[in-house]
Here is the input.
Amino acid sequence: MIMKKKNVFLVIFLLAAHVVVFAQNAITVSGVVSEANGQPLPGATVLVKGTSIGTQTDFDGNYVLDNVPSDGTLVFSYIGFTTVESEVNNQNTINVSLQEDTQRLDEVVIVGYGEQKRSDITGAVVSVKAEEIVKIPALTATQSIQGKVAGVNIIANDAPGATPTVVVRGLGTALGGREPFFVVDGQPLQDIRSINPADIESIEFLKGASYANIYGIRAANGVILVTTKKGKEGKIQFNFDSFFGLRSVLNRVEMANGAQYTQFFNEENAAIGGPQLQLNQRYDTDWYDELLQTGAIQSHNFSVSGASDKVNYFLSYNFYDEEGILEGNKFSRGNIRSNNTFHLFDDKFRIIQNLNITYTNETPKPFGAFNNAYRQSPLVPVFYDNGRFGQSFYNQTTGVVGFEAADGESVGRLNTAGNPVSQVFFDDENRNTTTLQGQITAEADITEYLKATARFGATQGFVKRNLFEPRRQIWLNADPVRTEAQFEEGRADLDGDGVISPEFANNRFNVRDEEFFRWNLEGFLTFDKSFGNHNVNATVGISRENFGGREIVEAEGFDVFDQPRLRSLNRRTSAFFDNTVTQEFNQSTNLQSYFARAEYDYAEKYFVRAVIRRDGTSNFIDGENFFDNFPAFSVGWTLTEEDFLKNNEFVDFFKIFGGWGQLGNANVPINVQQIRTDPDSGNQNYVFGPTQDLIFGASFGSPVFPLQWEVTEEWEAGFDFAVLDRKLSGTFTYYDRNNTNAIINVQNLLNSAAEGNFLAQAAEVSNTGVEVLVNWRDQIGPDFSYNVGVNFSTNRNRVENVVPGFDGQVGGSLNNGQITKRLQEGQPIFAWWLLEADGVWQNQEEIDNNPSVGNARPGHLKYVDQNDDGVIDDRDKRFFDNYLPTFNYGITIGAQYKNLDFSLDGFGLGGNKVYNGLANTRLQSVNISEEIFNSRWTGEGSTNAAPGADRDALASSFWLEDGDFFRINNITIGYTFNQFQGFLNRARLYFTAQNPFMFTDYSGFTPELLGTGVPNENAGIELNAYPTTRTFILGLNVQI
Amino acid sequence: MITEIRTMLLGLVIFTCLFGCDDFVEEVEIVDPTAEESGEDFQPIQFVTGVYGRHTDFAYAFSFLGITEIISDNADKGSAPTDTGADKDQLDGLTHTPSSVSIRAMWTQWYKAIGRASLAIEFTENFEPIDEGLRTRLIGECKFLRALNYFWLVRTFGDVPLQDVDLLERAPISEVYAFIEQDLMEAIAALPEKSEYPPQDLGRATRGAAQALLAKVYLYQERWQDAADMANTVMNSGEYDLEPDYATVWRATTENGIESIFELQGRGEIIAHGIQQYSSTQGARGPDGFGWGFNTPSEDLLNAFESESDAIRRDATIIFRGETLFDGRVINPGVENPRYNEKAYSSLNAGQGDGDKNIRILRFAEILLIRAEALNELGQSSEALVPLNRVRSRVSLPDVTATNQNELRLAIWKERRLELAMEHDRWYDLLRQGRAAEVMTALGFPFEVGKHELYPIPNDQLIQTPEMRQNPGW
Here is the structure.
């Protein structure tokens, strides 16, 4: 509609152009106008510069233009694409490809229950188009756009089948859900992995509250709207896309070799009076060499699409398959999508149908193997000569690593780390998922400016997991001297009661079936009309949803058949063990919502917008109130529409905007009243009466505060600009987001009434920052065009206004009794809270004369006595920032020369600190990295920078490192063939290097450490992270 | 235009009729049982019982001994030299620190009991339906218990946070005492006398208990007239008297007897329930032993009995090696320590986990001594002799006749030591009387003036609440 209007303007402009033609040597020029990807552009305008001579391209992008002056210039233009000028120079054939203007102002942006022209937007809404997404092949679209959207921090996870984590404008909650709300074509999305990135037309990030708030109680972490493709008018298109890639570890930590390990071991044990190893050892294993392989990735995509008067159709099939860098770690996905739009009654009534079927098959492997590969001694072999897996046995008498011992010699273990290769080998697990997602939408044009929309969507998912644990083999391989006979002895039912310990089951077989279902039903009216210069758009609607319901049935048995095809809980090889079954339900949530939005502008110059959403959720029906209203408003002013700027040649577009909105997060933990009783001798009970009867009492486990959803408020203000013939454009936004009632886990203070921790809405979490996006694009001649985009964003995260005494929750457990984080007012959320390391104890005298931790020895780290009380304890810990970056940036460079295209994307962040837990939590006699070996303290005066072989495992600032990194995440070179005869239309061959380089000072595997993502858990701590990988991809795209 | 608006409104109505009803939110099928369905129906009295129950924790059997007696001149750590009892060796030698676990344990214990009392009061105040008389009484019981715990806190740590007011800010001693007095006044108004309770409620806080505690609270504040008056009120209530035989005062036979004003209850049957291991931590250690042997009466205490020729109380307080106890048990001459605390001895279940020992918190003899001390301080020395000599005559000691205020003061203090030996008051008496430095230094302990008058705020509390002030010298 809008595009049509523009076309009309253009035609009027052409007709009205008052020019003089110097038609010397008039020739006829013909050619093809196409998009950058070779797709022909029907309807593009070709005009002789300075004249009214012009034409439009046909269905296949062809044009023929007579009477062109041989020294003239042709101007090629098309709405939404950058205009190209080309000198004729007596050529009879001029082919031109136009670049799409991704920041174009008349583009339509999806904003939730409707759409808006980009130039009318008055908030931080970022749109990412299909080309950007498919440029970086990945399992999920969110991975593909890492680093592209200012203010959206996407944290990669390179494990096969893993979902990257998306954080919009900082982390605003301690305990609530952190995920943004994903919506696909209006339907709430269960899992982004179920969407084939090639099916996506655009992704809109509603970063600012004034836009996100239309999704009310689920919008606090940002809203991400995914729009899938529709058939476009034009002839039927067949598209084939295939790529193959190889994947390897990008940033590997070199571990100490056998000799270095031996030396370190001996130094360590010399300090504590332990055993020594012989210098000549039999094995020298590089565990990472043994464990890692080159992963492979492939994807095949087919789609057919097109449109007639009555129907737009789009059908696609995708098969994605990936093998990880751990042997046997696989993930594959099949995906079928069908999007059809039926136009009925002269297009007054439309039925839109979306269907998406996704199935995945996954063989996970234990990532704890990385941990064991890091820890296991290089002196331990993968296999012993007898075929058994190597373990950390060594002969304590001779000091030789191995299980062999002569009479009178004793065998011990170097450490408790396992054999990572056997760990991966024995892990036998399979996961299948099927997700069916469908939606049907009816749209009716009641009048020219009033439209009614109703839709119903549903998603059903099934997850099936089988886990097989070959206990007999694991038991035998845990110790090479164990025999089958010993295992049988363990299995012997000596007392004849038919029961033996499942420790000696041949195997364990666990089957888990999970099923979930969700649906959404909504209806809304859209009014859109202009009264002269007054443009009004209004939407009102109602929505109902049910989600979160889940049923899990898990069954387990022992002693089933080994062969995978015979594995069944009904077919067991012994009668010793009973099968067990458990069943679990998750409560589903009903959500009832009302929403209304009014948008008004005067002459596309002054904009006012107000939104209200009312949500009620069944999660809180026990409380007094389970409905809440989420208002928002925003305003904008396009200065370039004002007279004083309208004819300015420098500034093409300038708009300032500002807005405020309220968002909710209902995905929060709920307090459960905990009343403690004890039927025995608990301290709730007491004795009364002459016969001293025991009276049973009760106590409150902890006070229960009524909890509500978290409410986030946000202010934002910014401007959009385009200058220099729109070659330079960009956006600047400032935001101030505040979670006004964050739920925190309140510590049971020694002097409080609480007898356990409890939850309370007792803090605020604020996130403030700026987002800058700048794009430069230019076309030099018909053959060369390029663009450079830079985005930059900052984030300052703070916990504020905590109820006195309610902060202090510690977290970031290293699983060895040490903690690393603390929630404290005035600090970022769960900031690092550590002892401050300050050099190394050089001798015993130094230790005796200064405050030290217990058992300090020369070579241990020295810690600062912050409060000068002569004792090193928790009160000497201090804060050291946190794991969240304070700035992110991305850079995109694209260039096209004739049929050759090139792109480079980089992404970086900084201001964060990450904790090398792998190195810190080292237990005695496990391996160390080469760097740790080389930098260690070796005696008085050797170094003050790193501890010796004998060291403590306390959490301290020594292990905290800068997490800054910059990564080139994509380099692509492609070549497009589009001069085909016959049925082939176009083909593009490309080569992509993903993550070829990473620049970081971090000593571990990867500074992108999200862990579980839970801020008070292992986020930012490397304990067994999956390393970042690099991938080289060769791909071919063919269009018919 | 009008038509459109009409259509729009009609559409809205249709939408609303279709699926615009708030009831939808409540239609969700609940899969977890509600509190009603799981049959949990709690009465106020259960939470009040829970407040009492909090006083049966192990902390009273071990940490409590450390900070009330072992630290003083009355008792030694005892046990084997290698067994420190976590930090009892430090307390015994006055080398304890803010990290000593006994201090942390009692700090926590007392505050958690206060918390239970406050929560029980709140629950009881709002509960319906309930007999109003019962409601009043239950709240009174909680207030008594809360006051008792604050009293223990304030005399141990000085300024302490009032839990209901501010968890971080330490309220001045005077405010804490004002809070305690307020609670006790309300308890006195709310509680029945001991004799007014039905028999099955024996052991609950009584009006007499609240009055007795208030007398003691006045004594600690040196409000002599108030202390003397309140002690007199208890004495004239007709509810209490001295047990005839001092030896039985801490035995099972006199539990909740005529002399008992308030005690912590225990029982010996299965499920045995009382202060966990109170008897076994203090039981004889070694051959034929029945305990860990901690908190042993010191030689200094023994000498104090001897110098007064106070054989009755000496023998009722101290178990000697090789002694045959009243119940026939023979203490092996080879036990680890020369003396053990006889007041902690349980005939029925000496070495068991849950003890049957009722711990006497307030008894009538102390009220007499409070009265005596207060009157003497008020200059009414001859009146003071009456209650003092009532205590002495029970244990067949000659009357004190001194009327010189100073002389009599020392006599009363000595009487308190001997009468209430090992009853968890000695250290605080020394501090209150301003004699701790003098007494402890004379015995060779490194008492630091300006520091040891108060215990340190536990380190773990300061880690949680760094804003909180530590006591001077720590």
